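Hi L.,

As promised, Methyltransferase:
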Amino acid sequence: MRRQCIKVPRKKGEPARRILLGLEILDNSLKIGSDETFLYLPLSREPDTGKLEGLPEGSELTFFDFEPLEKKPVPEDILGFTPAYEVIGDIALLEDEKLDAKTALKIADALLKTQPNIKSVVKPLTPVIGEFRVREFEVIAGEHRTETIHREYGCRYKVDLSRAYFTPRLSTERSRILSWIKEGDTVVDMFAGVGPYSILLAKSKKPSRVVAIDKNPEAVRYLNENISLNSAKNIEAIEGDAREEAKRFAGTADHVIMNLPHNAYEFLDSAVLLTKQGGIIHYYGITPEDDLFESSIELIRKAAEKAGRKVEVLEKRVVRSYAPHQYNICIEAKIL
């Protein structure tokens, strides 16, 4: 298929490709052509020559015979609809607990056929329940296991989904918290789980100390494995109740992470106790759309006042939609 294209020296192909993507004129339905010296980037339409001035030196407009790019099948091609699932490591987690067995198996087969990175497909049998925030699962297809290693921002997290809670949906949020941390800070993660917040922070080498607490012994077992897996040095894993551990570390934290959105309010007194003068609490909650922040801010204020301290709200934001008319929110509150 002969098409107009940009001819560019091979070593400068990637910068040129990015520019054409930004101009929205790169034709992704065709394979990029090449010879020993040049790459040939297919164009979807006649370019405005004035906009091509930013291309790397040696680039020129020409023609080339391209091959069509073979489209890889996706689950929608087999199913006729878009399935709801998330991928944790090499496990696909179907999101609808009410799926009937026939539909679940159909989705699982489509995922395994089209997504080579997926080795197991599971379906939750319960919501997140109990003291340790876990779910029961059924393996629908593929390898019969719920343990995997999930990769995120250069970190690896080993987790068994049936023994400790983990979601990849907060990866951007975890990175955002990292941006709050300064060199030499002390961070206390009150509900650390297998370590997705704590290990990311520790590996950044910004904080001088990360204290990662969780009550679930299985989560702490995986947390310790993940500390070794990621060669994180400045982190301490503690199995225990965050309320009791707060007494040990009272007044030491520059940052307190409270990622227990359904119940974090129950631990606010302990979070205030942990926080040094001017330290910041990162408070997570699940709130209705008609009261996203104010009730939570009031709870933080009351906990601070009880300890004779004041609160300055630095930031409040919606993290994600959680359920109809309900949102997962985060409030950054400085304790004075």
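The CA atoms of residues 202 and 233 lie 7 Å apart.

Thanks again for sending the construct details.

K.
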